[in-house]
Amino acid sequence: MRLRRHANRTLFDPEMKRQVTLDEVARAVRGGEQLNVTQAEGDKDVTGLVLLQLLQMEAARGAELPTELLLEGLRSVMATRRPSSVLKQLEEELIASATKVK
Prior knowledge:
single chain; 102 residues; alpha+beta; 4 helices
């Protein structure tokens, strides 16, 4: 599944020429489809951010998240010492999502 993510965080499937929901993306991922999401403005790969949104959605629905796996992934990202803009964008996403839930 190849998607474009717009500034307002909506996901668009250019092949089907329509907007898709996170629930639709979750079903596709559960069904074994690969996921590739690029930012509509600039073609930046934001697949990881969408996957984090899916994890957050599943956790909000009561799913038990694999803590050790999440810690390992976080340590891996931190070890690469990637630019703080990636972490800043993640922080903004999580804050925005948390605000919606309240």
